[in-house]
Recover the amino acids of this structure.
């Protein structure tokens, strides 16, 4: 593989995942505590592009690990068709590498006045999405220069897994996640 931004960013994944494993639990545990104290009726995840793929993973994890009904948002219902979606007592998660996506942010903005608990998973803790959310899980993976997402994508997957594990208290999953950075490094060394 030639030396490119994408290759460099793929090879950065063990380090950035290791950092998220060190920093993420501080962010996630406060969110998990809030969710245990006041469990939501359901979860809605809003995302676009590569982040939408991570959201699909989050949908599966939150259903399988946390036993929740989880849906993926259709932002156009709010932004284009101006429908009012009932998000009372919901957990609404926005997943966006940049936190700039207008349609994803519109879902969080729609949820807030209804009393939904909103969480932003983003690489930019100063983004509009982060400002809208009640809580933020900052990926902290640094800038991604290649068009194809690599380290931000795996960071989103890890952030969602950390949320599931801390919320459920699944100690085995937490132990498994702890070794993730090393496992990724081994695979990339092949």
């Amino acid at each position: 593989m030639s030396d490119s931004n994408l290759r460099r960013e793929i090879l950065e994944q063990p380090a950035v995942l290791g950092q998220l494993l060190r920093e993420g639990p501080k962010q996630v545990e406060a969110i998990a505590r809030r969710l245990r104290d006041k469990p939501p009726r359901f979860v809605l995840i809003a995302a676009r592009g590569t982040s939408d793929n991570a959201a699909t993973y989050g949908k599966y994890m939150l259903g399988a690990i946390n036993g929740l009904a989880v849906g993926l948002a259709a932002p156009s219902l709010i932004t284009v068709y101006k429908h009012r979606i009932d998000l009372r007592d919901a957990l609404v998660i926005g997943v966006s590498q940049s936190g700039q996506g207008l349609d994803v942010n519109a879902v969080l903005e729609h949820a807030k006045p209804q009393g939904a608990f909103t969480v932003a998973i983003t690489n930019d803790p100063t983004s509009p999405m982060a400002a809208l959310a009640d809580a933020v899980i900052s990926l902290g993976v640094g800038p991604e220069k290649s068009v194809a997402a690599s380290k931000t994508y795996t960071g989103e997957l890890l952030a969602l897994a950390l949320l599931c594990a801390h919320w459920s208290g699944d100690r085995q999953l937490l132990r498994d996640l702890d070794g993730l950075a090393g496992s990724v490094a081994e695979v990339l060394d092949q």
